[in-house]
Design a protein that fits this description.
This protein is α+β, with helices and mostly antiparallel strands and 691 residues long. It has five domains: 272 residues, 3-Layer(aba) Sandwich (Rossmann fold), CATH 3.40.50; 111 residues, Elongation Factor Tu (Ef-tu), domain 3; 67 residues, Alpha-Beta Plaits (2-Layer Sandwich), CATH 3.30.70.870; 114 residues, Ribosomal Protein S5, domain 2, CATH 3.30.230; 82 residues, Alpha-Beta Plaits (2-Layer Sandwich). Helix content is 28%, strand content 32%. It contains 16 helices and 36 strands. Helix 6 packs across helix 7, helix 6 packs across helix 8 and helix 12 crosses helix 13. The protein is elongated and about 110 Å long. The N and C termini lie far apart (69 Å). The chain binds guanosine-5'-triphosphate and magnesium ion (MG). The site of magnesium ion has 5 residues, from helix 1.
Length: 691
């Protein structure tokens, strides 16, 4: 691969709803620039972007991919992303290293859920963006309708820079409104604008010039005074407007039939910001900040946005150099682990290929293999100049399964392999649920977890069984109760004696556990036995008396007791404490508490009714409802027990057009009729275990 200066680079990420044609666009671009001799197809599993085994199997992108395209002395690093929202982690990774976004829409379906989500991710990073209306060859493709739809949904000056010649079956090329040339077919050469398009093009150009002038005070003056702007001035104004996020330039074409792609690449080079335009802040070890720019002479700061665990190569780390230069055969420092790492060779990625390089310069994207202590979202820097780049924020997990090893051999592999998987993918989470003891794997949806589990099986031979996780209930009480327990064992050998009188009281939610002996009067129990009583009670806190779930928010006040001069001992008071705890707990109006989630659901308006009635069946309490621009947003509190499969159910209710987010809010008593069933079930399980 030729070498490029920082100013010759363009890091752009493709964003769009599933199936808008991102991978096909990247494929056509890389083909047009001559880097591959055959244009692959998503349908055949032969594209540069969809190289992952799972992507090929499913015919959708499941991961981000870097596809460098050399065009007219520049290198466009195209970051292809999945449109499927389960892979939001991959999208955010790509967005975090791009300097601009290309949002694809399908002119028949217009703006979709994935379009809006992706738009939002670009907003979070304040990235400039353009829109590419793809699939102009499709029957019923209508550029103007797509444009109207964009303007209804998004703010900013949304203005075409290239317009289609024909639509649907008649789509033949595009007209570039800056150069006022037509690019027919594959767009390799420019031609005159077809006569029947002249008036339309003139009109569109007027709008474009107005938008370009807006970006620059000097230009707007000139424009208002009625002077013609030169092509250079239009370019300058447009570039500034796009970079500042005010202007959203719109292009069009057909990735599948290779129409409009070359002129679009010309525009990427002309209008998209190069890496030098941007600064980012990094943290220094003392907590202060340092501003970084894509400058080869600056300190090294490279951000790892993607990690692939390869069973043969080992770990592959994809990084972007935000400052300085990453050289092969060097030593670097990795944060947050604080480890010195050895870099033997650096490469440019192209899909799954690794193209050897001697260095990766400021602003560029590269890969390095076999780093020991570096995972996704880590920063590579110099030991003597330590810097940390802020990783993106990810949504809370939406979908969980309980995993167990299939065999004994799997059991040994499970921990390390799950660890590797979470290192690779920041939206995957593994934890052991306190209370149920299950190992829980969480992620963004069913497909996400299914894929993670398949990968672990294929790459590392780990067999896992999955189940719906048990709900982590808690037990608590609703009123006070007092009672005593006498533990007495005085037959044969050494005797045991302990008697404890105790009152149990409910605490506020989050109160935890309190133990108090200040009411014990006149030495009825010797102080040295207090810890024994507490220990006895604590032995049942993880396994509550009601149904075996952890006990929360209770206060135990010991107020009296009895001792025996010889037989009172630690074990006797432990048992007495444990037993009086069980008795008082069960007498104090015990309840099961369940986790309640805050849920926000966004769906096209027409599904609002279905969503509300479905929430009803889930014991949901709707807290708010908003409708705006054809979309409805519902906020509600819903018990976790009813939300475990929501990722699947919402998809089927809305044909994949709904999204939601969810996070823990608080715990509440389970309604009695439901609690009875859970308690009965727990009893049956406990009995089965005893047998
Ligand atoms: N008619 C037509 N079909 C296209 C065009 N571009 C892509 N397609 C088809 O649309 C389908 C989806 O294309 P992809 O490139 O996989 O879309 P994507 O945006 O990468 O999809 P995800 O990776 O799932 O988000 C494939 O069958 C493509 O052949 C186009 O310009 N015109
Ligand atoms: Mg794709």
């Amino acid at each position: 691969m030729a070498s490029f200066t920082t100013a010759q680079l363009r890091n752009v990420t493709l964003i769009g709803h599933s199936s808008s044609g991102k991978t096909t666009l990247a494929e056509t671009m890389v083909f047009d620039t001559g880097a591959v001799s055959r244009r692959g197809r998503v349908e055949d599993g032969t594209t540069v972007g969809d190289w992952d085994e799972e992507a090929i199997r499913r015919r959708i992108s499941v991961a981000s991919s870097v596809i460098p395209c050399e065009h007219k002395g520049h290198k466009i690093n195209v970051l292809d992303t999945p449109g499927f929202i389960d892979f939001v982690g991959e999208i955010k990774g790509a967005v975090s290293v791009a300097d601009a976004g290309i949002v694809l829409i399908d002119p028949v379906s217009g703006v979709e859920v994935g379009t809006e989500l992706g738009w939002g991710y670009l907003d979070e990073r304040e990235l400039p963006r353009v829109v590419f209306v793809n699939k102009m060859d499709r029957e019923n493709a209508n550029f103007q309708r797509a444009l109207d739809n964009l303007r209804e949904t998004f703010s900013g000056t949304i203005v075409p820079v290239q317009i289609p010649v024909g639509e649907g079956g008649e789509f033949k090329g595009v007209i570039d409104l800056v150069s006022m040339k037509a690019f027919m077919g594959d767009g390799a050469t420019a031609s005159e604008i077809p006569g029947n398009m002249a008036a339309v093009a003139d009109d569109a150009r007027t709008q474009l010039i107005e938008a370009a002038a807006e970006g620059d005070d000097e230009l707007i003056m000139k424009y208002l005074e009625g002077e013609e702007l030169t092509a250079d001035e239009i370019n300058r104004g447009l570039k500034a407007g796009i970079a500042g996020g005010k202007v959203i330039a719109v292009f069009c074409g057909s990735a599948a039939t290779n129409v409009g792609i070359r002129p679009f690449m010309d525009a990427i080079v002309a209008f998209m910001p190069d890496p030098t335009a941007k600064t980012i802040t990094a943290q220094k070890p003392d907590g202060s900040e340092e501003t970084l720019r894509a400058d080869a002479t600056g300190p090294l700061a490279a951000f790892v946005f993607k990690t692939v665990a390869d069973p043969y190569v080992g770990k592959i780390s994809y990084f972007r150099v935000f400052s300085g230069v990453m050289r092969g055969d060097s030593r670097i420092y990795s944060l947050p682990s604080g480890t010195e790492e050895r870099v033997s060779q650096v490469f440019h990625p192209r899909g799954k290929e690794q193209l050897p390089a001697t260095e990766i310069t400021a602003g560029d994207i590269g890969i390095v293999n076999k780093l020991a202590a570096t995972g996704t979202n880590h920063t590579l820097c110099d030991r003597g100049h330590q810097l940390t780049i802020q990783p993106p924020a990810y949504p809370d997990p939406l979908f969980s399964v309980a995993v167990t090893p299939k065999t004994k051999a799997d059991s040994a592999k499970m921990g390390p392999t799950l660890g590797r998987a979470t290192e690779e993918d920041p939206t995957l989470e593994v934890r052991t649920e306190h209370g149920t003891g299950e190992v829980i794997l969480s992620g963004m949806g069913e497909v996400h977890l299914d894929l993670a589990i398949r990968r672990m099986e294929q790459k590392f031979g780990l067999g896992l069984l999955t189940a719906v996780p048990k709900v982590p209930y808690n037990e608590s009480i609703t009123r006070s109760a007092s009672d005593y327990h006498r533990h007495k064992k005085q037959t044969g050998g050494a005797g045991q004696f302990g008697e404890v009188h105790m009152e149990i009281k409910p605490l506020e939610r989050g109160g935890g556990f309190e133990f108090d002996t200040s009411r014990v009067f006149g030495g009825s129990i010797q102080n040295s036995f207090f810890p024994s009583i507490e220990k006895g009670i604590r032995s049942r806190l993880d396994r509550g008396p009601l149904a075996g779930y952890p006990v929360v928010d209770v206060r135990c006040e010991v107020y009296d007791g009895k001792m025996h001069p010889v037989d009172s001992k630690d074990i006797a008071f432990q048992i007495a404490g444990r037993e009086v705890f069980k008795k008082t707990f069960l007498a104090a109006g015990p309840v099961l508490l369940e986790p309640i989630m805050d849920v926000t659901i966004t769906v096209p308006e027409e599904y609002m009714g279905d969503i509300m009635s479905d929430l009803n069946t889930r014991r949901g309490r709707v807290q708010g409802m908003e409708q705006n621009k054809g979309k409805g947003v519902v906020t509600a509190q819903v018990p976790l027990a009813e939300m475990q499969r929501y990722a699947i159910d919402l998809r089927s209710i809305t044909q994949g057009r709904g999204v939601y987010s969810m996070k823990f809010s608080h715990r509440e008593p389970v309604p009695a009729h439901i609690a009875d069933g859970i308690i009965a079930q727990a009893k049956r399980e406990a009995e089965a275990e005893d047998e």
